[in-house]
Amino acid sequence: MGLDDTPPERAGLRAVIADDSVLLREGIARLLQESGFEVAGQAGDGEDLLRKVGAHKPDIAVVDVRMPPTHTDEGLRAAHRIRAEHPRTAVLVLSQYVDEASALELLSESSERTGYLLKDRIADVESFIDAVRRVAAVLRFMRSDQEPVIPTQTVVR
């Protein structure tokens, strides 16, 4: 199945993407759009991400761990706030490096609709798109304009 052969039961997921690297952010947006996602917003920092998640109510937020201004854990902190303030939004955190403590902390709050993925996995497009779909689809809440989606696989932790 190619990127533009999205089955109807997997179409229509809405995403917000946050990464301070505009090239990576635009690349992720294009991959998601070509795979049937609606990219509702893009953000370059944690505060903008939180505003866009609040405004667009996406099915999933794809979030870089390190973002401005300090490039330490702003994305991870924003992911925690999204999980607390917007429980209907799944969160997939992207990291350049393995940070087991951050991953375990995020997943310990609730592993449902939450994932942690190394950025080098994005080089494998099909695996990345599958990971985004699985994190977003598990226990997906129905939007009023769509039929419910019953996932066929559970999220990979």
Describe this structure in words.
The protein is α/β, with parallel strands linked by helices. The chain has a single domain, classed as 3-Layer(aba) Sandwich (Rossmann fold). Helices cover 38% and strands 17% of the residues. It has five helices and five strands. Strands 2-1-3-4-5 form a five-stranded parallel sheet, with helices on both faces. β3, α3 and β4 form a beta-alpha-beta unit. α2 packs parallel to α3. The longest helix is centred in the N-terminal third of the chain and has 13 residues. It starts with 13 loop residues before the first strand and ends in a 20-residue tail after the last helix.
Topology:
Blueprint: E1 14-18, H1 22-34, E2 38-43, H2 46-56, E3 60-64, H3 74-85, E4 90-95, H4 100-109, E5 114-118, H5 125-137
Parallel strand pairs: 1-2, 1-3, 3-4, 4-5
Helix pairs in contact: 2-3
State Rg: 14 Å
- How far is the first residue's CA from the last residue's CA? 25 Å
Number of strands: 5
Beta-strand percentage range: 15-25%
CATH homologous superfamily placement? Response regulator
List unreliable stretches of 5+ residues. Answer: 6-10, 139-157
Q: Helix and strand succession?
A: EHEHEHEHEH
What is the CATH class designation? Alpha Beta
| Oligomerization | single chain
Tertiary shape: globular
| Secondary-structure content class | alpha/beta
CATH topology term: Rossmann fold
Biggest sheet overview: 5 strands, parallel
Structure annotation, total helices? 5
- Rounded mean pLDDT score: 79
Number of domains: 1
Question: Helical proportion?
Answer: 25-40%
Order of neighbouring strands in the sheet with most strands? 2-1-3-4-5
CATH architecture: 3-Layer(aba) Sandwich
